[in-house]
Amino acid sequence: MCPTLDQICCASLPQPALAALADLRREPEIRVLIQGDRAWVRWPAVDERVLRRILPVSGVLLFARHAGLWYQLGRHLPTFAIPRELDRESVPLATALVPDRIEVALPRRTSTQPARLRLVRDEFVRPASAMRCRLNALAAWAETVPSSRVNSLRAAIAGDLVMLLGSPLPALADGTRYWGAKLLIPLGFRADPSLSEDALRRTLSVASTELLLLTPGGYEVISSHVFKPLTRSGIRLSERSLHT
């Protein structure tokens, strides 16, 4: 007899290669006997799943049983290499093939260092959404543009400094432009560490009604309520108040 693949129901393979059957550990009819460095596997011939997994294994030997005798695949004469203990001492695959021992180690204690918030250079191009400038420069600009252009902005005026919100912003030589919405950062820079706007605001305990402004020397918090629509009359009034 020369067995065919559909008759194969036993195999001998290197013991480490038994892991190829790991996903079949729940099948009680797959039996295993370990002898030395070889694993002997027996299963019902009608179950092709075992054969499909062990065929690619290097060094595997395949066997079929006929009329009480064992035949190796590719051989016409019976073989007596099958261990006599295969039937009575084999164990289920789940017993012979178990996961490696899990090594549990406690995490090492490490000291945490506070992060320093700073501005670093950034080449990413972003649109400006805010601007800080001098009151006299803003006043000179406001006299040269239509009222609608002035009224499209909101401003917070403190002494001779003005913080503008909106777009488009005036083209002033001495102004500092910022990008962002609730977190304002000078153009050409970004925050380091690179956290989200919400994360930075939570870290610095900034309220939802406040703007967070990052500067090279630290940060400022500005209430959103101090920003009012910008008008020429408002600019002129602020200039008169500054000089009285």
Automatic annotation (TrEMBL):
Query: Which superkingdom is the protein from?
Result: Bacteria
* InterPro entries per record: bpX2
Record-annotated MoxR-vWA-beta-propeller ternary system domain positions: 12-237
Q: What is this protein called?
A: MoxR-vWA-beta-propeller ternary system domain-containing protein
Could you tell me which species this protein originates from? Singulisphaera sp. Ch08
Q: Pfam families, per this entry?
A: bpX2 (PF19918)
